[in-house]
């Protein structure tokens, strides 16, 4: 492993931490800008789900739908989000699975605790970040968050894993 | 006959809990009422079990519940469908432990008794140990028991734990046409479950959910945060460009009162009903050209117009199943406790239709039925607040007076009212009261 590899790993890790942090700090517009123009957010509803089109997903959103969800976060009529849930995203086990030119695939494990009203709810799972790199840094072509209990029974949730 | 739930000093008279235009708060909050509902509604009435496409091939099984009781839907080597109690004939362990699969036989995990998929006993280890005892392998009790009645209507399998009661078709009555319309929307005339299932836990009574489906006075209030927001955001980023399917799906939830009024409500015996008819919030989805061509080829132009002229929103097969025929999705109600319900969400492929249609149904489920969807959490919030609000002793009654006495009788048990009416609730409680007081099936 070269120093360049280590630096690259460090930059990738920092990007993942930043992405998680923006969610926890509720800076969703900034978070949304981490996606490429056609980047998607995907939380599948089954473990080996080949695509988001022929099988249901907990969330599958392009930019327009993320804009809607983020605008809803701020809607005074979003009764289920009052008070707004607080989250803590923890990212770990980061590995670079593939790097070809500007395209990078990164896998990691996450834990997210959501505190809504009276109780904390814990979500665990794996992230796969499909990144593209440019002079201005990384952008997400896809962020996939698959819960270990993706095909289990879930309570309502509105925030991003 | 008045029925009393023995609840100490606060004994409940079932006949007075549900009145013509109001219902007592305890129907949502009292565990004793819930237990009686399990017995008299869920374990008596026809309950949706599964779809035949889930057990296409011999050996396939799907395990689920009827009320509190575990059951298995199977397809045996004779090609027939069976609904069995999921209980080994030996010591009662659940025979099938996973949700679905395919097997030559069902083998109990405990002592290895093996059964055919029609429930009949196949073998017992060291069977000679029973020689000369009162156990008789030819006694029907040695088999896994079939539920008393099951039947299917165009692939939708219902079962009843009561040996008596109306036939499935009679019981479905006027809402069978909603299943017909959904299946007729397939060029091949058949539906297939596909795309997985999502299970969404609600911390509220099952009736809040099933009442809400044809509560057309709530969307413009409860769904402001999602639907109105989607309209605003889409307008801002798309201008006058045509809206993508996701926006076509979310926007109509905040149509006007007059729009929902015009959708109308249709009520039938046994608590069944639907909203929409000639139009609904699904009426303005963009055409999929290849689909229309496939339909016309299969049915002819006139019949296709007839099929598409029916545009219903939710159809409720009280108490367990609900479909949206126009978008080919289904939600199944699983009551867990007086204040806990799981809603399963399923998607159907229209056989012979282009892939685009399935993709739209999947998109619809993601947007409207997922536990992390944009629209549903605000519904759930309303049920949750009802569940907790009704603990209040400040008032006893939940009101359903709107347009009472102004229903239109269309004959054959078909009742119509404008969309803003409380007809759907009154009709469900008419059935509820009959089930609960007579134990009718
Ligand atoms: Fe709603």
Describe the overall structure:
Chain A has 161 residues and is of the alpha+beta class. Chain A has one domain: Nuclear Transport Factor 2, Chain: A. A 6-stranded mixed beta sheet of chain A has the order 2-1-6-5-4-3. By secondary structure, chain B is an alpha+beta fold. Chain B folds into 2 domains: 114 residues, 3-layer Sandwich (Rieske Iron-sulfur Protein); 246 residues, Naphthalene 1,2-dioxygenase Alpha Subunit, Chain A, domain 1, CATH 3.90.380. Chain B is built from 15 helices and 23 strands. In chain B, the strands form 6 sheets. Chain B has a 9-stranded antiparallel beta sheet with strand order 14-20-19-18-17-16-15-23-22, with helices on both faces. In chain B, strands 7-6-5-8 form a 4-stranded antiparallel beta sheet, with no helix packed on it. Chain B has a 3-stranded antiparallel beta sheet with strand order 4-13-12, with no helix packed on it. In chain B, α3 crosses α15 and α11 packs across α12. The two termini of chain B are 16 Å apart. The model of chain B has no long low-confidence stretch (mean pLDDT 95). Classes of the chains: A alpha+beta (161), B alpha+beta (441). Chains A and B meet through β2, α3 and β7 of A and β14, α8, α9, β20 and α13 of B. β7 of chain A pairs parallel with β14 of chain B. The complex binds fe (ii) ion.
Separation, N- and C-terminal Cα atoms of chain A: 32 Å
**Portion in beta strands of chain A:** over 45%
Assign the CATH topology of chain A.
Answer: Nuclear Transport Factor 2, Chain: A
- The Rg value of chain A, from CA coordinates, equals 16 Å
Mean pLDDT of chain A: 97
| Biggest sheet overview of chain B | 9 strands, antiparallel
Describe the oligomeric state of these chains in a short phrase: heterodimer
Largest protein interface?
A: A-B, 34 and 47 residues
CATH class of chain A: Alpha Beta
CATH architecture tag of the largest domain in chain B:
Alpha-Beta Complex
Supply the helix-strand structural class of chain A: alpha+beta
CATH architecture tag of chain A: Roll
Number of self-contained structural domains of chain B = 2
Helix residue percentage of chain B = 25-40%
Strand content of chain B: 15-25%
The count of strands of chain A amounts to 7
Bound molecules: fe (ii) ion
Q: Output the radius of gyration of chain B.
A: 23 Å
Largest sheet data of chain A: 6 strands, mixed
Number of helices of chain B: 15
Structural class of chain B: alpha+beta
């Amino acid at each position: 492993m070269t120093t360049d590899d280590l630096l690259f790993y460090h930059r990738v890790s920092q990007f993942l931490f930043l992405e998680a942090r923006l969610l926890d700090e509720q800076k969703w517009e900034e978070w949304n800008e981490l996606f490429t123009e056609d980047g998607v957010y995907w939380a599948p509803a089954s473990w080996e789900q080949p695509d988001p089109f022929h099988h249901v997903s907990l969330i599958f959103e392009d930019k327009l739908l993320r804009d809607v969800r983020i605008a809803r976060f701020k809607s005074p009529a979003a009764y289920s989000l009052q008070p707004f849930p607080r989250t803590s995203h923890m990212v770990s086990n980061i590995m670079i699975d593939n790097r070809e030119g500007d395209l990078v695939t990164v896998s990691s494990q996450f834990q997210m605790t959501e505190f809504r009203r009276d109780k904390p709810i814990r979500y665990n799972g794996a992230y796969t970040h499909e990144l593209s790199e440019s002079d201005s840094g990384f952008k997400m072509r896809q962020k996939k968050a698959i819960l270990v209990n993706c095909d289990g029974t879930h309570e309502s949730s509105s925030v991003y894993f | 006959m008045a029925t009393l739930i023995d609840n100490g000093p606060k004994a409940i008279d079932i006949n007075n809990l549900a009145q013509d235009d109001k219902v007592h708060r305890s129907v949502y909050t009292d565990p004793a009422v819930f237990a009686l509902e399990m017995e008299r509604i869920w374990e008596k009435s026809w309950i949706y079990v599964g779809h035949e496409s889930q057990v296409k091939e011999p050996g396939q099984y799907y395990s689920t519940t009827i009320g509190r009781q575990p059951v298995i839907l199977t397809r045996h080597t004779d090609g027939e469908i069976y609904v069995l109690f999921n209980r080994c004939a030996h010591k009662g362990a659940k025979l099938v432990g996973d949700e679905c699969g395919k097997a030559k036989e069902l083998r109990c995990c405990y002592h290895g008794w093996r059964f055919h998929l029609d429930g009949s006993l196949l073998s017992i280890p060291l069977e000679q140990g029973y020689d000369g005892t009162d156990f008789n392998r030819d006694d029907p009790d040695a088999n896994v028991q079939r539920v008393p009645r099951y039947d299917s209507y165009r692939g939708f399998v219902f079962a009843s734990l009561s040996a008596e009661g109306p036939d499935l078709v009679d019981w479905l009555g006027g809402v069978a046409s909603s299943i017909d319309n959904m299946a007729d929307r397939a060029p091949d005339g058949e539906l297939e479950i596909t795309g997985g299932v999502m299970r969404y836990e609600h911390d509220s009574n099952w009736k809040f959910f099933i009442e809400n489906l044809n509560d057309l006075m709530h969307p413009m209030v409860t769904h402001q945060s999602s639907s109105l927001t989607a309209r605003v955001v889409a307008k801002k980023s798309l201008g006058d460009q045509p809206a993508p399917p996701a926006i076509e799906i979310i926007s109509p939830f905040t149509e006007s009162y007059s729009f929902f009024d015009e959708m109308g409500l249709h009520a039938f015996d046994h608590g069944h009903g639907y909203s929409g008819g000639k139009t609904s919030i699904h009426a303005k989805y963009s055409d999929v050209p290849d689909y229309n061509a496939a339909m016309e080829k299969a049915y002819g132009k006139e019949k296709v117009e007839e099929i598409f002229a029916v545009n219903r929103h939710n159809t409720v097969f009280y108490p367990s199943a609900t479909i949206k025929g126009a978008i080919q999705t289904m939600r199944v109600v699983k009551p867990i406790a007086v204040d806990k319900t799981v809603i399963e969400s399923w998607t159907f492929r229209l056989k012979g239709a282009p892939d685009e249609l399935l993709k739209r149904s999947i998109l619809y489920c993601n947007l409207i039925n997922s536990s992390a969807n944009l629209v549903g959490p605000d519904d759930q919030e309303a049920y949750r607040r009802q569940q907790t609000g009704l603990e209040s002793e400040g008032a006893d009654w939940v009101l359903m007076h709107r347009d009472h006495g102004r229903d239109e009788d269309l004959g054959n048990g078909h009742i119509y009212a404008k969309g803003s009416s409380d007809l759907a609730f009154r009709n469900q409680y008419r059935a509820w009261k009959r089930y609960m007081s007579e134990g009718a099936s």
